[in-house]
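Note to self: user wants both folds in one dump. Writing first protein now.
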Amino acid sequence: MSRRTPKLPSWLPIDLYILALIGTVVLAALLPASGRAADVAGGASTGAVALLFFLYGARLSTGEALDGLKHWRLHLTVLICTFVAFPLLGLASKGLVPYVLSPQLQAGFLFLCLVPSTIQSSIAFTSIARGNVPAAICAGSFSSIAGIFLTPLLAALLLGGTGGGFSADSLLKIVLQLLVPFVAGQLMRRWIGGFLVRHKKVLGYVDRGSILLVVYTAFSEGMVAGVWHQVTPARLGALLGAEAVLLALMLSLTWYGAKRLGFDRGDRIAIQFAGSKKSLAAGLPMASVLFGAHASLAVLPLMLFHQMQLMVCAVIAKRRSHDPEPAPAPGTAPGPAEELSPATGRA
């Protein structure tokens, strides 16, 4: 008899990458980089961020993105949810200071609301729920592209001097570390695109390893600066409660708002999953550039929200998959759900 590897219930996704992130945070708490080691880690982190955005640019197919513009109403709806509705709720969180959230955690909460949407996990959940997968692919891609430009601009406008401060030097860092590598990747795509497709799995490890390095550097700086003494268990519980309310509001807004706008079931599913989620992969490198030594507290709300959205959206997607549905319209057939796992989809 063959042995089968025991599997976790599909409705309870445990993101192994989140466990790796937690392990990285613990490592930074026990063995933070300081002195010369901090300089080396900081330089490596800067290079890792530039590499990430170079790969983002090299992987993005401009032609496919332009083809997706045909469904512009759906994509515009997702963009409004991501870069208008979310930031407004983030601004409302200022009312939680100082009794619920500390000023530093509130800045991280607001930054979470400025980050672009996910791509792979939005596709995975849309596929499981039998929604409009092509629309989810395009919506996530558009959000990621827009986020490279809009997230730093919104941070400059809404965060102001919070955290590391936003100055001409910060703007220069954003251009050099984010925009220049992204544009370079786009320009190099015609020569290296095939290589990236053939080695997609290996490059996925490069992506995740780079982000772990960014997290280690950020949390090491926080440990050396003593910022973690500001986070009590009560503050952490309050942050989780605020994020649960934020996620519930956005899931409701995207689902019922899309219905009011006249979208069909498949489109509503794509809007709900693409419009209610935030990208850990895009947010962590941006936070390291925008917040500097204060990045550890800034990324904590995003890390917690990431795992929360995975678990909640997995339950919703599973239930939506059992909904009665009429014959699918052309172009809305679900993709191969078995190839996309919500527990492993990069966000």
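First done. Writing the second protein, which came from a different request thread.
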Amino acid sequence: MTGQLAFVESPVQLLNVLEWAHTQAPDRAPGEPPAPALTVVVLSPTDPMSRGQLRRMAQLARDDGLTVLWQEARAGRGALARTLRGLAGPLRSAERVVIGDPFSRYVQLLLTLFAPRRLTVVDDGTATMEFAAQLGRGERLVRWHRKGSLGPRELVLAPVTSMARRRLAPARGRTVEIFTSLPVEAPEGVEVTRNAYAWTRDRFGPPSLTGGADLVGTSLVETGVVDSAHYLRVVGELARTHGATRYFAHRRESSEKLHAVAVETGLQIVRPDLPLELIARRGPIGRTVVSFPSTVVHTLPLALVGTGVKVAVVEVAPEWLRATASPRAQGFLSGIAGTAAHEVDRLTHPTRLEFG
């Protein structure tokens, strides 16, 4: 296997690999293989919603001329070792490697096997902003919602993370590109390429619009950042204020929380079968889309440009955070909301209710 090799673990990563491939040859017809060839290796997650979305995204990628290999890297004892052995040769022969999540332990282990000559990092959400900042400051790679101290597992994997960080940085004989729709400051020696969601707009839509609003869910409760009771109260208030009828669930939201959202707010829960950028572009979609701080406040305005859809972002108030949330959480979430596109409305703590 030669040419270009991409590793993805989420539907959004695969979508952005397709967007990146489109920028390499924007006039390429649908189904025409890119040159040089691009092979996408899916390191499959275990949760059913992510797997279902990835299966559908994989078919879209095949339809667009990419080769897709599905790897069950998490399928029990020995699966990771077998995956690493099988990919060592292709990694060494690839002229470019594309990755979607530089914080991933699986990707970091792969990076211990080779030093890529040309490396591209595509968006996997707002973590790209943190990756660029940490790379520029020379810090170890830590997800923004994690606590700063190292646990036993992190201590064991520290040498892997350290080597991966070095191999994610530009060096003699290695170029690094970040392909992003987010406002990132380019670390020294790193090329930042704009992701304008041209492939999405070219392949889908424009959508029909409903008369009301849609809410976009978040996994901030599941990641231990936002208090569950606060979240439910805020969602209910947003639904009443904006006349929303649908709630687009994040793929990592728990069934228990989604049930509570439906019962307490009356919202229809929608579990998207594709990333929200594609769902919105296909339509129907509300004339207003309200989201908590997340990648979609940067990506939806790009995917929906010219459609008349208005995107609004809800700023997270400090009192919504759990006591166990990372000290960086408030600043990071404020940064996402504050750097959203100028056409995005900012809802400043719309529910200053007495949470008790």
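Dump finished. Worth passing along: The first strand starts at residue 4 and ends at 8.
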